[in-house]
Specification:
By secondary structure, the protein is of the alpha/beta class. It folds into three domains: 3-18 and 533-614, Immunoglobulin-like; 34-150, Chitobiase, domain 2, CATH 3.30.379.10; 156-382 and 474-507, TIM Barrel (Alpha-Beta Barrel), CATH 3.20.20.80. Helix content is 31%, strand content 22%. Strands 1, 2, 3, 4, 5, 6, 7 and 8 form an eight-stranded mixed sheet that branches. An eight-stranded parallel β-barrel has the order 9-10-15-16-17-18-19-20, surrounded by six helices. Strand 5 (105-109) and strand 6 (113-118) form a beta hairpin. Helix 2 (55-72) packs parallel to helix 3 (120-133), helix 4 (170-182) runs parallel beside helix 6 (241-253) and helix 8 crosses helix 11. The longest helix has 19 residues, at 3-21. It is globular and about 75 Å long. The two termini are 26 Å apart. Residues 1-23 have low confidence and may be disordered. Bound molecules: acetamide and zinc ion. It catalyses: Hydrolysis of terminal non-reducing N-acetyl-D-hexosamine residues in N-acetyl-beta-D-hexosaminides.
């Protein structure tokens, strides 16, 4: 052992002794707005009482009680009462006077009692934080004492789940909604119609599902191979209105709003396969539900009145099912080829004195907006709805880049930031050659998600108010099973929740990746959900030049092990188990390679991280 090693070890000892003396930081994700950690713990005992004052607070007490029963086997008494009853108690204080839009809560944890207060939503989030704080220590079930005052940065915190390319069981949709709620996300944007499948039962137009929900095959190879690779296996399915009502109610209980998306005027091949007369020209079709991924030229005819009658009928049923303030009408990637040569579309352009087909799209969206507004709802659409003039009350989902969102905010429209460059979760999250098949060109590792600030610089204070939130998109061309969706969603969801809820200055990426996320992944690891196991903390795929190297690694999942070798093959459990820093000393001209893998308690593995060391 050399001197430097002894010194380093001494330093490490001092550092660990210091951190032991400190109160451990509770691992809450997303990080609360303010959290003052205090000495001591509140211990949950069989005699702990949950106190409530009214029906809403009784419900939140019951939610916490069922969590404790399920996870820790203790049945807690719940009774109406006041926080001053002198017992070891948790008091759920409903403050109904706060506005519905207020999602804030206060959570005060002392050794003798806990008080959580807020309106119904705030109380729900307070309980989510409490559930994250519960820990087991030497048989004790306890929560670290702390004063927490919390509220979200953004009102809109969502994911977009596409079920057009592939469809998933109701149980899976519910499991996603549960995870959203756990991380204080509040929007599930449900992309229900695509060229490749119509997924929502519409009573008035049964062929939408009997025909439009099924395709003859699916593309199985990569996007760039789009002329080949159809599997010729019939594929399809849809959600019945009963299933949808059940899911909407499930989401409501968890304070998640489901925003349905009915794509128009493009991405409508499945609807046209069912009702070809809605396309351009005198005798359109026949069409088939699309099999290759991509964009299709056949779209709803903007000249025919029966297109609008159809869409208004569909939207009427949709609005009966979904109580959301916003209805998503798509609006993206609508080719204008057919409109250019359609006599009905051209007549519409002439009659309405429109400049071109972009203004025709704008006419289309504005007309739909007027209808949706007449039912007391608002539309939101992908950023192409800016082209040709934005509908007066529409909100914009900025997906192609950030600039479109800036443009919309400057026009005083509300904006949800969903740029593909940062929050498209269909993009890969690691080395392309090692990651599962994913869409085209994009690369959105979790670090990039966490670093994304949804409010762009360069907006005035007033314009910034129009950035109402952030949303990640899960397009599913290459996600034929819900397992793959899970792999693409977790743990990027946790980073998304952090940027959606937590103010920028409170986001500490080292604390997120090294302290909090490992605890959350350890919990996820005990469930049946798949997730992408991050590589060891402290190393990355890179080349380092020098003579001596000291490599320290940390498990990204609490309780996981790291194995490594220098031989070049993928690391596995028969290799060296990492338990102390690795030293590498190179002769002149020598090079070495370190490969390391994480294996979690449930046996899940990370993709190998490879580091090269060269002494030139
Ligand atoms: C989109 O990704 N086409 C909105
Ligand atoms: Zn037409």
């Amino acid at each position: 052992m050399n001197c430097r090693y002894i010194l380093t070890s001494l330093l490490l000892l001092i550092v660990s002794a210091y951190s032991l003396a400190q109160s451990p930081e509770p691992g809450v994700i997303p990080m609360p707005a303010t959290m003052v950690v205090k000495d001591g713990y509140f211990t949950i005992a069989p005699h702990t009482v949950l106190l409530y004052t009214d029906e809403p607070s009784k419900k939140k007490a019951a939610l916490f009680a069922s969590f404790i029963l399920k996870n820790h086997g203790v049945a807690l008494a719940q009774e109406k009462g006041s926080k001053n009853n002198g017992k070891n108690s948790i008091y759920f204080s409903h403050e109904p006077r706060r506005s519905d839009k207020d999602e804030s809560y206060t959570l005060l944890i002392d050794p003798a009692n806990i008080v959580v207060s807020g309106n119904e939503t705030g109380l729900f989030y307070g309980v989510q934080t409490m559930m994250q704080l519960v820990e087991r220590n030497n048989g004790n079930i306890r929560l670290k004492c702390a004063d927490i005052k919390d509220q979200p940065r953004f009102a809109y915190r969502g994911i977009m789940q596409d079920v057009g390319y592939h469809i998933y069981p109701v149980s899976f949709i519910k499991s996603q909604i549960e995870m959203l709620a756990k991380y204080k996300m509040n929007v599930y944007h449900w992309h229900l119609t695509e060229d490749h499948g119509w997924r929502i039962e519409i009573k008035k137009y049964p062929r939408l599902t009997s025909v439009g929900a099924y395709r003859a095959g699916s593309q199985v190879s990569h996007y760039i191979d789009s002329l080949s690779g159809i599997d010729h296996i019939p594929y399809g399915g849809f959600y019945t209105q009963d299933e949808i009502r059940d899911i909407v109610a499930f989401a409501k209980e968890r304070h998640v709003t489901i925003i349905p998306e009915i794509e128009l005027p493009g991405h409508s091949m499945a609807a046209l396969a069912a009702y070809p007369q809605l396309a351009c020209g005198d005798k359109p079709g026949p069409f088939k539900v699309a099999e290759h991924w991509g964009i299709y030229d056949d779209v709803y005819c903007a000249g025919k009145e029966n297109t609008f009658k159809f869409l208004e009928d569909v939207l009427t049923e949709v609005m009966e099912l979904f109580p959301s303030e916003y209805i998503h009408i798509g609006g993206d990637e609508c080719p204008k080829d057919r409109w250019k040569v359609c006599k009905y579309c051209q007549k519409r352009i002439k009659d309405q004195q429109l400049k071109d087909e972009f203004e025709l799209q704008s006419y289309f969206v504005k007309r739909i907006e007027k209808f949706v507004n007449s039912k007391g709802r608002k539309i939101i659409g992908w950023d192409e709805i800016l082209e040709g003039g934005l509908a007066p009350n529409a909100a914009v989902m900025s997906w192609r880049n950030i600039e479109e969102g800036i443009k919309a905010a400057k026009q005083q429209h509300d904006v949800v930031m969903a740029p593909q460059t940062h929050v498209y979760f269909d993009f890969i999250q690691g080395k392309r050659e090692l990651e599962p098949l994913a869409i085209g060109w994009g690369y959105n590792p979790i670090e990039k998600v966490l670093a994304f600030d949804p409010t762009p610089a360069g907006l005035s204070k007033e314009e910034k108010k129009h950035i109402i939130g952030v949303e990640a998109a899960i397009w599913t061309e290459h996600m034929d099973t819900h397992r793959k969706v899970e792999y693409m969603l977790y743990p990027r969801l946790m980073a998304l929740a952090e940027i959606a809820w937590t103010r920028r200055e409170r986001i500490d990426s080292v604390n997120f990746f090294e302290q909090r996320l490992p605890l959350h992944l350890a919990e996820l690891d005990t469930t049946d959900k798949l997730y992408r196991v991050p590589g060891p903390i402290g190393i990355k795929d890179t080349t380092l030049y020098g003579v001596e190297f000291r490599i320290e690694m940390k498990a990204p999942v609490t309780g996981a092990k790291i194995y490594y070798n220098f031989e070049g093959q993928d690391a596995r459990e028969t290799d060296f188990l990492y338990d102390k820093p690795v030293y590498i000393v190179l002769h002149k001209g020598e090079r070495r390679q370190l490969k390391a893998v994480v294996i979690t308690p449930s046996g899940k593995r990370s993709i190998n991280t490879t580091m090269y060391f060269i002494n030139l």
